[in-house]
Structure formats: structure tokens, C-alpha cells
Amino acid sequence: MRKNKCIRGIFLVLIMLVFPVMVIIAGGAQEAVESDPLQLVSERGTHTEAWKTQMEAFESESGVDLEITQHPYANYFDQLMLSYTSGQNEYDVPYISLLWYPTLANAGYIQPLNDFVDADATLPEDMPGLQSASLDGDIYFIPYMNEVGGIVYRKDLFEDETEKKNFKAEYGYELTPPKTLEQYEDIAAFFHRPPELYGVTLMGKRSIFLATHFMNRLWAHGGNLLDDDFEPVFDSEIGVKSLEEVKDFFAYTNPAAYSYDFQEALTEFKMGKSAMAELWTTAMFHVDDPEGSQIVGKASFVGFPKPADAGDEKRPRLFISWGFAISDACERKEEALDWIAHATASDALAEAAPLGTIPARISAMNDADLIAELPWIPAFQEALDTCIPTPIVPLIPEGMSIVNGFVAPMVSEFISGNGSAEELLAGAAASTRELLEQNGYY
């Protein structure tokens, strides 16, 4: 009996000694789980490098660790989809293109963010990109950066007194950055002095970049790719006029421009070989980079012009945006929302912008220090304020197929002289309608 009591006493002592250790170990394991980094994923690009500078401050203020995985843009979307379709779900906060969120939302891979917008009554007016971020009444995408389609131009040429005098003598009005499509063509013709200088740089390689030249003009003339019922409407008189104008403008380019994509076009302009380039706003970061540009400080930006008869009417203009979403499998939504709130705060956006991004908030664009560092920001804001921001492809899962598969080849065939505008437009519209009909849109 005494022996049993002794054994029980020893057992109790052991329990008393071991149990606290087990509690400490268990508590440590729980703490380790709770402090696992919030997983961010992004492409490799200048605007990602800009917001990455805000990660340390967030970690310090919130006590939440962040970890980021980056993929080259060329395969980023495929890598993201592989993570979702394989069930790995290793990413909490993906940084994505505006064009991707409808596909991800429809598949159930990202979750609604309505509570983020509801928490800030000023957000819808301060963040114009939100108007393109909803699907069936739910917000799935919080913009971080945005840009619009337009023209980067050589300020040094436009401000040269001899050039101004000669232009006015030839065309009868002052040389300024083009305010109308008609002025745009006059200026391209005036500065076209091959091979030393070309009037404009365009992107003629069969790709989505070439398609933007057609869509810029289609929108400027008041047209669109699809109507509200998803019927293709670009095979119209406006479509014919827009397509013909694209071909006309190639008369003022370097002959090599027929093989250019974005990078080749940007390089030509940075080397000072053209007076204008039809690109979008972030080209300015590359133009002002002393490591790769010969015209640093000599360029600015203007939104793509409308025809003179459009007056002050707001019309669509190419709009590009990247921003944050939250994976549906993310179990730490509040922490993810806190990170997004931190990164997209006005002061954080203004601070990061000079590193390679254009703020998604108007209040950030009005920051005096930012304007001093990026003096073309007010021109960008004017371009955004005076248009209907319109994504580069329709925000439906088939949008990229329509632009890449039907519109871009149609433009390429026309500028190469392989068919009439009417025939090519009709064929592209018919293919678009067939695709959407097969997918149940009608």
C-alpha cells in the first residue's frame, strides 16, 4: 500500500512538472502558427517595387509579418491559377491586373471586399478605378495604381521657338500637345523627318498593343467593342474610320514600327528618335530614367485626344490598373484588409509613387511633394478626369480572347493591306459574336 502511495505521489509530481512545459510548448506552437507571415504574391514590375517599400512600416505598426513571392509577368497569371486549381492556396493577398479579377471571382478564388469600401465613404470618389472593380454588385479588387492611354511627347521640341514658328506658319495655329485627333495628325506629319526624326512611334506587331491603337480611336470617336447586351458593335462606320486612321498614322512612323511591341516603341522614343509615342502613362518613368534614356526631363504626357467635334463630352479612354485582392481561402481577412488599407492610404501612395507607380487615389495625386518630383502627374490626372476609364479588354472571361484573338489580327491584316476595313471588321465581329453565343451570352 505504501509503495502504491509512493508511486502515485511520484506520478503527481511528474505531472506537475511536465504539464507546465507542455502548456508552454503548446502555447509556443500556437503562437508560431498565429505569427506565420501573411503571404503576398505579385509580378515583377516597377509598381510592385514601389509598394514593397511600405511593407516594413506595416510590419512594425501592426506586428504582422509579410512574405512576398514574385513571378515574371509573362507567367505570373499561370502560376497564380496553378496555385488555385491545385488546391495549394498558399497566397493570401494576390496583387493582380484589373483584367484578371472577373475570372478569379467567377471561379470562387477571391472573396468580396465590400466591407473595405463601406468603411471609407470617401473611397469611391477618391479612387476612380473602383468603378471597374465590381462584379454582380460585389467589389473584388482594390486599385493600387492606374494609368491611361495617351501620348508621351518631346517637350523640348514642342517648346522650341523655331519649331513653334514654323508649325504656325504651316498649319495656322499654335504648336501645343495635341488636344484633338486632327491636331495629333498635323503634329505627326510636321515632325516626321526620317531617318533622323519620326513623327510618332506606334506598336505594329500583331498583339494586344497594336489593338490599342484601334481601340484608342474607336473610343475617341464614341464607339465601343461591345454594347450593354454584349453584342459586338465595332463593325460600324466609326470602326471603319478608326481602322483607317490607324493605317494612316503608320505613314509617320519608322518603317520598323510594324514589328514593334511596347518595349521596342519605348526604346525608340527614349532614344530621341520620335516626337511622340502612343503609349500609356507609366512610359514616363522609363523616359525619365537616366540609365536608359537620352531625353530625361524633356518629355511629358497628354491623354489620347478626341476629335474636335466631341467638345467636352467624356468618352472612353484606355485605362490600366493593378491592385489587391484577397484569396477566398485566406483565414486572416482582417489582417489582409489592414495591409491593403496601409498600402493604399493616400500618404503611402504618394510616398511610393516616384519609385514607379501612379497613385490610385486622387488625394495622393494632389500631393505637392509628388507633383514636384513628377511634374507630369497633373496632366495624367486631367486625362483621367476627362474620360470614362475603360479597361483594355472587356471585363468578361472572354475579353482577352476577343482582343487578342480577333481585334489584333484584324488590325494587323488591315495595316498590311490584306483586305478592306469593312470585310475585316465584319469578320472579327462575327467571330466575337459566335464566341459569346457559344458561351451563353444571348
Helix content: 40-55%
The CA-CA distance between the termini, in Å, is 88 Å
- Count of individual helical segments: 21
Biggest β-sheet description: 8 strands, mixed
Overall morphology: globular
Structural class: alpha/beta
Give me the CATH superfamily of the largest domain: Periplasmic binding protein-like II
Mean of the pLDDT scores? Answer: 92
Strands, count: 10
Can you put this structure into words, describing what you see?
The strands form two sheets. Strands 1, 2, 3, 6, 7, 8, 9 and 10 form an eight-stranded mixed β-sheet that branches. The chain is of the alpha/beta class and 442 residues long. It contains 21 helices and ten strands. It has helices at residues 2-34, 46-52, 55-62, 73-85, 101-106, 114-118, 123-126, 155-158, 161-171, 181-191, 208-220, 237-249, 262-270, 283-287, 333-343, 346-352, 362-365, 368-373, 377-385, 399-415, 421-438, and strands at residues 38-43, 66-71, 93-97, 134-135, 138-139, 142-154, 276-280, 299-303, 315-324, 387-391. The protein folds into two domains: 38-146 and 321-382, D-Maltodextrin-Binding Protein, domain 2 (3-Layer(aba) Sandwich); 148-317 and 394-438, 3-Layer(aba) Sandwich (D-Maltodextrin-Binding Protein, domain 2). 48% of the residues lie in helices and 13% in strands.
